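[Automated response] Your request has been received and processed.

Submitted sequence:
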Amino acid sequence: MNPSRILVVEDDSALAQALSDTLSLSGYEVLRASDGEQALARLDRETVDMVLSDVQMRPMDGRALLRNL
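Generated structure:
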């Protein structure tokens, strides 16, 4: 069985690393993006099962990212 793929969208690199490590240890395949625009670009190239996003980011916040998804 293939692990679920989760895209973590977080502009705080330490928090993104902590989330990624925790999810990886739980058996998920983790992709990362540092903002909403980078997340959308990544999603144009790759398929994921879930997006876990920060809300307060720049230049595109999590709410705008959700509207675009």
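Summary generated for your ticket: The longest helix spans residues 13-25. Residues 55 and 63 are 6 Å apart (CA to CA).
If you did not submit this request, please reply to this message.
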